[in-house]
Design a protein that fits this description.
Elements lengths: L3 E2 H4 L5 E12 L2 E6 L1 E2 L13 E3 L2 E9 L2 E6 L8 E6 L1 H25 L3 E6 L4 E5 L8 H13 L5 E3 L23 E4 L3 E4 L14 E9 L2 E8 H22 L6 H32 L7 E4 L5 H15 L3 E6 L4 E6 L6 H11 L1 E6 L2 E6 L3 H10 L3 E2 L1
Parallel strand pairs: 1-4, 16-17, 16-21
Antiparallel strand pairs: 2-3, 2-8, 3-7, 5-6, 5-8, 6-7, 9-10, 10-15, 11-12, 12-13, 14-15, 17-18, 18-20, 19-20
Length: about 375
């Protein structure tokens, strides 16, 4: 027996009563079937409803062979009448997202002829994939047109054309579908085959925001957010921008320019510091002229800077330069010998001091899971001058 789908008859239905027709225990809960239901099952890229059924919590809803299966956290008795209550805030959010996606997909199809080939609702945004390239400069216009459709408060009609009507209905689809086909129509915007549930009129969507557009599998992927979800997301962005505005002492609409100026200043300072650091490394290296193998501890260096200092010291000491820098719970190390091999020394060091890394003839770089005292004792056994 097929389940009567109340969610198609009235998408705004929040409560209903139904007769329990079956209940089976599964490894994830109890699979409950009803003679009718307002709980929408997962499908068409739209997540299922959740809520309360009798005394049980509905965790998941799926459709199988015409029956709607409600996965519940406790059992219900076949034959009993149960009251169902939809988590309507969740339902309405999903309807806002799905209806907003239809508007954007309809506009993209009309303007470019591209099909929606992927649709996923995440926690914050929707991902919608199209099979063609949308120019970045067109995104703002698509978004504006989509929101004009929202402001027009157009009716959203969902119906099943008869077998005689269907051949005369022009609708967006990637392939010919056999009857019965459920059609969702937004006048002058989109007519599409869809099994999802939608708002009654586009004004209920509230807002449509396209957050990003990136190349994806020969086409593009749009990130979109609608309704209350979009408002919450944009408020979070606004708060982040407010903090940036305060940090840069810039007006909210001038934070981008302020950030660019700061990047330019940082780049200039980085260049200046690199020059000063080069002079410092050369002076440090001069202190080790002719000393042979040396071990040097120097704080606060990146891996590239450790290597640079090791190479400069090696050019002065005429032996192996070992430079160590204390990091979080480890010692970063670089061995350099411009005239000999450090492979055996690197292997022995890694084995003795819990290290890992690698290199080539005359060079080894990695990290050690040990402390400074153990490292000094190790290199002392090899006759290194320790600084």
């Amino acid at each position: 027996m097929h389940t009567q789908k109340l969610f198609y008859e009235d998408c705004s239905l929040r409560q209903f009563t139904a007769c329990v027709t079956g209940c089976q225990k599964t490894d994830k809960g109890y699979a409950v079937t009803l003679d009718r239901t307002a709980f929408y099952p997962e499908g068409g890229g739209q997540a299922c409803d959740t809520g309360i059924l009798g005394s049980a919590r509905v965790l998941d809803v799926r459709e199988s062979d015409g029956q709607i299966i409600h996965l519940c956290d406790s059992p219900l008795s076949p034959g009993e009448t149960a009251e169902g209550r939809i988590d309507y805030d969740r339902r309405f959010d999903l309807m806002q997202q799905h209806s907003g996606e239809h508007i954007v997909s309809g506009i993209v199809h009309k303007r470019f002829g591209f099909h929606n080939v992927g649709f996923h609702m995440g926690a914050d945004v929707m991902e919608v994939d199209f099979d063609g390239f949308i120019p970045p400069e067109a995104i703002a216009q698509i978004e504006l047109e989509a929101n004009k459709a929202v402001w027009a408060n157009l009716p959203v009609r969902c119906w099943y054309p008869s077998p005689e009507e269907l051949p005369h209905v022009t609708y967006r689809t990637k392939r010919i579908l056999p009857w019965p086909v459920r059609i969702v129509d937004i006048p002058d915007i989109d007519t599409c085959a869809c099994c999802g549930i939608h708002v009654a009129a586009t004004g209920q969507i509230g807002i449509i925001k396209i957050l990003s557009c990136v190349k994806f599998r020969g086409g593009v992927r749009l990130e979109i957010s609608c309704g209350a979800r979009a408002t919450t997301y944009l408020n979070r962005i606004f708060e982040e921008n407010r903090q940036v505005s305060q940090a840069f002492s810039a007006k909210p609409l001038e934070t981008g320019a302020a950030a660019h100026r700061m990047n330019e200043l940082l780049a200039a300072e980085k260049f200046r510091c690199a020059g000063l650091q080069k002079q410092l490394f050369e002076k440090l290296a001069a202190d080790y002229t002719g000393k042979g193998d040396v071990l040097v501890f120097y704080p606060g260096l990146t891996s590239a800077e450790i290597r640079e200092l090791a190479e400069k010291i090696a050019s002065s000491c005429n032996g192996t330069a070992a430079v160590l820098c204390e990091g979080k719970g480890r010692l970063d190390v670089c061995l350099v010998n411009l005239h000999g091999d450090v492979k055996e020394l690197g292997s022995a060091m890694s084995q003795a001091l819990g290290g890992r890394g690698g290199g080539k003839h005359g060079f080894f770089q990695g990290s050690l899971t040990t402390d400074r005292k153990a490292a000094e004792d190790f290199f002392a056994r090899f006759g290194f001058d320790i600084s």
